[in-house]
Amino acid sequence: MVIEKANPSDAQALANLVNSAYRGDSGRQGWTTEADLIDGSRTDAELLKAVIETPGSVILKYVDEGKIIGCVELRKEEDKLYLGMLTVNPSIQGKGIGKALLKASEEEARKQKCSAIFMNVLTVRSELIDWYFRHGYHDTGKRKPFSFTDPRFGFPKQPLEFMILEKIIS
Questions:
Q1: For residue 126, which of 15, 35, 85, 119 sits 20 to 30 Å off, Cα-Cα?
Q2: Which tens digits make up the pLDDT trace of 15-74?
Q3: Other beta carbons within 10 Å of 163
Q4: Rounded to an integer, what distance in angstroms lies between the CA atom of residue 69 and that of residue 91?
Q5: Domain harbouring 98, CATH code
Q6: pLDDT tens, 86-116?
Q7: Residue 48 CB coordination number (10 Å)
Q8: Cβ 129 vs Cβ 101: under 8 Å
């Protein structure tokens, strides 16, 4: 097992992984699915390739036996690090892969001299919010609407909003 930076040639494999975990029937195997909340894909290879190639952004991939089984997007914004798209293959969730990616994200934040990590989590995802709370994140009290118009992010089945969580990095 190794956690390393993804490169543009990983984009399709990453898109397949993320979509399998967040949307569709395959995502129902794990506890991170949004299939009942949002229709469509979560992302695509083109978008992920753009993230990988953007200065200040990185996707860390968790590789086991040559296969990408987890990932997380990180993007520096001022003195904080944005964390998004934390993903683990739904058939092997609950084995510490997400925790390892979270720890690697915190190490990246320290390396980039960031004061905190923050993220957007759908407010209706209480089990996910609780998981982040157990790992030191707190509710900032800030909310923002799920207002994507790009079909690459899917179409909500109900009104949704994001809760902004944050963890101070020492």
A1: 15
A2: 999 988 887 555 455 556 666 777 777 889 999 999 999 999 999 999 999 999 999 999
A3: 20
A4: 10
A5: 3.40.630.30
A6: 999 988 988 999 999 999 999 999 999 999 9
A7: 25
A8: no
Q: How far apart are CA 27 and CA 154, in angstroms?
A: 14
State the total domains in the chain: 1
Nearest to 41 by CA among 24, 27, 25, 58: 24
The range of the structural domain enclosing residue 98 comes to: 2-168
Could you give the C-alpha distances from 42 to 6, 45, 78, 141, in angstroms and in order?
Answer: 18, 11, 26, 25
For residue 131, is it left (φ>0), alpha (ψ between -120 and 50) or beta?
alpha
Cα(27)–Cα(35) distance, integer angstroms: 7
Q: Does 168 score more than 70 pLDDT?
A: yes
Q: Output the six-digit token pair for 4.
A: 């390393």
Is the distance from CB of 49 to CB of 11 less than 8 angstroms?
yes
